[in-house]
Structure formats: C-alpha cells, structure tokens
Amino acid sequence: MRMEFVRDGPALVIENTERLLIIADLHFGIEADLAAHGMHFRSHSRERLSRIMQTLDATEPDRLVLLGDIKHSIPSLTRQEWTEIPGILDSIRRRIPILVFPGNHDIGIERFLQEGELQPKEGAVIDGIAYLHGHTYPAPDLGGHLLVMGHHHPQVSLRDHVGCSLVAPAYLRATIDAPALGLKTVEGGGPDRVLFVPAFNEIAGYDIVKISRDPFSPISRCMKQDGAEVILADGTYIGPLSMLLDDDNVNEKTRKDRHGT
C-alpha cells in the first residue's frame, strides 16, 4: 500500500491495485445553517468544488471515495443543498467515478446518487482498505483492515509559551479495541488500526485534544490513545497524541493558576 497526503485538500491518496482519492466531510450547504444561527456568509460551494477538481487534477486517481457528510443540514434538505448538490455531483462524476459512504448529515443524499455510488453506512473494504464515515459501529467484516474514516474533522492546535501558534487540519492514527467494536479477528493479522481523515470543508475543524477527551463515536471511544500519532495534512509527522494531551494539561493548569482557581 502506498499513501500520499495532499495538503491543499486536505485529501489522501491510497494506492494498491488502483489509485483512490479519499475526501471527507464536504458539508455542502453549511452556509445556510450558519445563516440560521445569525452568521451570514455567501455560499462557498463553487470554490469548494473547484478545490476538488484541482485535487483530482493533481493526483489523477482512478476513483474518488467520499467519506460522508456530503451535505450539511439534518434531518432535511435546505434550499441551498437542493439547488447546489445535484450539479456538484454531476460535475464530479463527469470527471471520475465516485463512491459515497453516507454520514450522519447525509439523510436524503441517495436521491442525488446513481446506481453503484452509495455504499453501506457501516463501511466496506475496497482494494484491501476499509472505508466508512465513522458515526456508526463498523461492519464486523472490516476487522483486520486499516479503517479510514471521516466524521471527526480532526485539527491540531500547537501552542508556544505566548499562545496558539498553529491551527491546522491533521490526521489522527491509532490502534483500536477491535473486540469492543465487534470486529472479526484475522488470524495472523496485526492490530486493528484507524486513520481519522480531516474535513475537506475549510471551516469544519475540531481539535484533536477534544476528540480524545470527549470521544463522540463508537470508534473514537474504542481508540487506544497510547501510541496514537498526529500527522499534518501535508504528511508532516507531529508526534504522539500524548504530547498534545500533556501540553493541554500544562496549559489548563497555567490558566487555573492565573485565575486563582
């Protein structure tokens, strides 16, 4: 297996017998939800689609795997999504075949998909790698494979002694408790591992420390934090997750000391 990190996505290329481009959490229509909460932005769907096309041109994959949350609003479709999503998907599929692993935001997405594009929400193995959005328990047959998933929008915050110096999309790689997830064991196989993929949507990041402190999916709750690693969107190795957790403990203690609590 060959893996390439695409910084300007963020996106991931995984190549075995075929070359797959992996994109997670597009959240088309997020601007309509922000407007409903008093934050008004014009739609950035056109720019987001342009980035997808640029990523396709740069990586030249055989197929595009979308790890769920294509749309944003739940449980229904907004006018923005109803208007934009059919054209967005048509533009992509004219360029490349797509596979969609639906996420928790993707209620109703099947009406925009063609035969063979919609994959099981519990995940499936493609070319030796298991893919899923990650909001549900994975299918038992995914055991023994690397799980590549979205849903968590991981980003890293690196701080120096005067404050936050970097906030950026990041990957989180870890082993998981396979029996707790109901995954089948594979004789002679190594430990089951997961790779959390950052969101392609530019405003949808969620701090890795918060994911670790308060996991919100079956897989993140079964993640073994000892030995977990953090990687930037361009493939730069940051270090073990424990380093970020230790830094967060120090920063929290400093804040409490300053406020006398």
Describe this structure in words.
- This protein has 261 residues and is of the alpha/beta class.
- 27% of the residues lie in helices and 28% in strands.
- The protein is globular, with a radius of gyration of 19 Å.
Radius of gyration: 19 Å
Uncertain runs: 252-257
Task: State the helicity in percent bands.
Answer: 25-40%
Per DSSP E runs of 2 or more residues, the count of β-strands stands at 14
Envelope shape = globular
Mean pLDDT across all amino acids: 90
Main pleated-sheet profile: 9 strands, mixed
From the N-terminal CA to the C-terminal CA, the straight-line distance is 51 Å
Summing up helix and strand content along with how strands pair, one would put the structural category as alpha/beta
Report the sheet-strand fraction: 25-35%
H/I helix tally: 7
One letter per element, helices H and strands E, the order comes to EEEHHEHEEEEEEHEEHHEEH
